[in-house]
Amino acid sequence: MKEVTTQAVVLRTGHFREIDIWLKLLLPERGIETVFAFGGSRSRHRFPGCLDVLNTLECRLRTSGYGNYVTLEEARLISGPGDLRSNWSRMGLAANCLRFLEALDVPADSAREAFGLVEDLRRHLAESRTVSPLFPLFFRFAMACRLGYGPDLEHCSLCGRRLGDEPSFFQVSEGLMLCTGCAGKFPSSLLVKSAVRNLLCSVEYGAPETWGKARGYEERRACSALIDGFIQYHLGIVWDRGTFRKS
Ligand SMILES: [Zn+2]
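Above are the sequence and the zinc ion SMILES. Below is the predicted complex in structure-token form.
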């Protein structure tokens, strides 16, 4: 038996048998792990009302003798979403982000960045006066950047020319950002105005509070096409019939 004490944020929970709970946790050292809390719905001593989605916990985990499953032995709440739980539309945005993370199956070497971004997400949804409807889309892009897939938005992927304030183009199937000169080689490229590129730059490494806002339908559509294409190309994840799946 091997035991560790670690922080974790709860991505999803479910019941099995009468009083037992399974949880998907994001651990900053290991990525996503499914664990079993035997007696989880009864024991207020070992799990004092803390086994809920979006909570950050301090956990004592034990790996079984054969290493084939992990049990949650004890947990205590470090921080949680507070009143956010009663805001169904914002909890819906959070759920969309968490489902994306599950589809992504965060690798261990990026887990700490992913953990930090989930805590940023919770804080932003709990505290901000307004939240953009594009928040889940921007979260996906920010997460891809935290995992090391961040595109160079400042330069043409082919010739290396600095893009400045001129319009640029994005080739979805190849994941390329292109200058006007190089875009001719890829007739199906999407036009990306500098305002949209600046918006994506704000999301690339900044905290959610500093992410820019899309103005109007055209900018929202451009962000959506670029980010969804980028995520599909680099991470192989698509939104399909109400769920994220590997393409
Ligand atoms: Zn170029």
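Residues 132-246 form one domain.
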